[in-house]
Amino acid sequence: MHGRIVWNELNTRDPEAAKAFYGTVIGWTFAPKEMSDGRTYWLAMADGEPVAGLFTLDADQHADIPDHWFAYLEVDDVDARAATAIAGGGTLRTGPEDIPGVGRLAVIRDPVGAYLGWMTPRP
């Protein structure tokens, strides 16, 4: 649904500590999902359904990024909306790129400096 937050992801350097914390405090379990680069993405599960993701900040490009929760907004066409965002003063940080089984993603930095993931999900 265009314009709605559709996914939240914890970006962390210590996925084991995060899984232990949220498993104990919230009751989530975690299912591994192998990414195309060979790393593991963790799906946080509630009642057998994925409710959030856990992404490990372990690449050089993540060196100056603190651990944080990151939201994804569903948009009808990531490529077109990214172009509109750039024209409106935003900055394209990553993507657009296809994530198999998920959809097409981009990370946008808006004119005030806030970051938000944009996603056009694939069925």
UniProtKB/TrEMBL annotation:
A Pfam family hit: Glyoxalase
VOC domain segment(s): 4-121
Gene3D superfamilies: 2,3-Dihydroxybiphenyl 1,2-Dioxygenase, domain 1
PANTHER family: GB|AAF24581.1, GLYOXALASE-RELATED
Record-given protein name: VOC family protein
Native organism: Segnochrobactrum spirostomi
